[in-house]
Amino acid sequence: MANLTDRIIRAAKLDVKLYEEVEADTGSFKQAMGVVVLSSIAAGIGAITRGGIMGILVAIIAALISWYIWAFLTYLIGTKLLPESGTKADIGEMLRTIGFSTSPGLVRVLGIIPGIRGLVFLIASIWMLAAMIIAVRQALDYKSTLRAVGVCLIGWLIQAAIFILLVGLTGAGGVSV
Question: What pLDDT sits at residue 170?
Fold first, then answer.
């Protein structure tokens, strides 16, 4: 199994070969999960003045749930709704590649610096989106980056709708992740 630190750096550099590597490496699931946890801890630390220690715990739990939902939605949309002729993927491939696409989120720890949290989180979000598009393109064996963008957009809209519905049903609108 490859070095986790090296993989995180390569994922953050948007290294297409890294996403192909973790797609094929069935043993990298725990590493991918670790990246999701580390990224959410970084976000929690970066926003600690808003959520405190409990905010970090909530961020970790929400990130793990979101990761699975996002991977599942992406898998369904990419393989059933918008497949290309060469599309071949399973949920494990999606979980591994999407997990590593959260690597740029580690910079969110810099949000702890007064006055720059919003900028840091914006930059991290755009960077993670770029990584996600590459991860989806590679995991679904797409030739088209535009198709991967479409899959990510549709998945994001569905996940946002589910989140809004859950917040409405549970009344958890006051909880900040």
Answer: 74
Q: Which domain holds residue 145?
A: 4-171
pLDDT-based confidence at residue 160 (cuts at 50, 70, 90): confident
Residue 146 CB neighbours (<10 A):
10
Domain count, the chain: 1
Give yes or no for residue 91 having a pLDDT over 80: yes
Q: Is residue 69 a part of any domain in this protein?
A: yes
The answer to the question of residue 177 being in a domain is no
CB 176 within 8 A of CB 51: yes
The structure tokens listed for 168 are 């409405």
> Could you give the CA distance from residue 120 to residue 117 in angstroms, rounded to a whole number?
5
When pLDDT is averaged across residues 34-40 and rounded to a whole number, the result is: 94
